[in-house]
Specification:
The structure holds two protein chains of two kinds. Chain A is an alpha+beta fold. Chain A has one domain. Chain A has three helices and nine strands, in the order ααββββββββαβ. A five-stranded mixed β-sheet of chain A has the order 8-7-1-4-9. A four-stranded antiparallel β-sheet of chain A has the order 3-2-5-6, with no helix packed on it. In chain A, a hairpin with a 6-residue loop joins strand 7 (108-116) and strand 8 (123-129). Chain A is globular. Helices cover 0% and strands 54% of the residues of chain B. Chain B has one domain (6-81). A five-stranded antiparallel β-sheet of chain B has the order 3-4-7-8-9, with no helix packed on it. Chain B is mainly β. The chains are: A alpha+beta, B mainly beta. At the A-B interface, strand 5, strand 6 and strand 8 of A face strand 6 of B.
Chain lengths: 146, 87
């Protein structure tokens, strides 16, 4: 009985702590975006962000053309500059999900990392978002890049 | 310019909406038709993965999508007839 009482008080606090520690805490996109470095000539910029806090413990690496560039941190975003060309952005939990996209010179693209239920763990899957929608979506996300 | 919303289905069961008012530019030609791209909306084809896509037009029919990264064609099922203008 005592152990049940202990669990009742301990478990919610633990879950809350896990959620908080798993979330982003850097400056917000809305504060940082205007002071970002310009995109180098001939390159484009890809913003990658995750608004969903559901499944906060699931934070797979994000890869661009198989190179790890960051993690799917809930409430976080980062960006990468790459030469114009074709790219595949992928995340892997129990399955690998890939988004294929093109990048033009000076183009900004926004990729949202969505989460859906899986068999054992959630699936994180990247989706290309219209810039106008994404800029509203991402504004409260915290920078988690380098 | 597209004068009405067009919903296209692919064999995976997912659908893609092309929005009214979007303007399209021809960027190439493949065996299935002329390839058009727009900057007015994101066009994606979803299956087990997600693919940015261009639209393939044969006459007045949108017959499917060209996936520029994969360099492959995926058919719309069924093709959709649209009204064309050259604006």
């Amino acid at each position: 009985m005592n152990s049940i009482k202990f669990l009742n008080s301990f478990l919610p606090a633990t879950l809350l702590a896990l959620t908080i520690t798993g979330c982003a805490s850097g400056p917000r996109y809305s504060a940082l975006h205007n002071s970002e470095s310009p995109v180098p000539a001939g390159e484009g910029r890809i913003y990658i962000y995750r608004t969903a806090h559901v499944g906060a413990a699931v934070q797979p690496k994000v890869k661009v053309n198989d190179e790890a560039v960051g993690s799917a941190v809930p409430g976080g975003y980062f960006f990468i500059d790459r030469p114009a060309g074709n790219y595949q952005i992928s995340t892997t939990t129990e399955v690998k999900r890939t988004l294929s996209l093109t990048l033009d010179p000076a183009q900004e693209r926004y990729v949202r990392l969505n989460i859906s239920f899986g068999f054992f763990v959630g699936h994180v899957w990247p989706e290309l978002i219209d810039n106008q929608v994404a800029e509203k979506d991402i504004k409260d996300c915290h920078f988690v890049g380098k | 310019m597209l004068h009405r919303n067009v919903t296209l289905h692919v064999s995976s069961g997912f659908s893609t909406l092309l929005k009214t008012g979007t303007r399209w530019t021809q960027v190439g030609r493949i065996a299935q038709g002329d390839v058009f791209r727009t900057k007015d909306q994101i066009v994606q084809v979803e299956a087990s993965n997600v693919y940015e896509a261009y639209v393939v037009l044969n006459g007045n029919n949108i017959v499917g999508f060209y996936l520029p990264v994969e360099r492959t064609f995926t058919a719309a099922s069924p093709p959709v007839v649209i009204e064309l203008d050259s604006q």
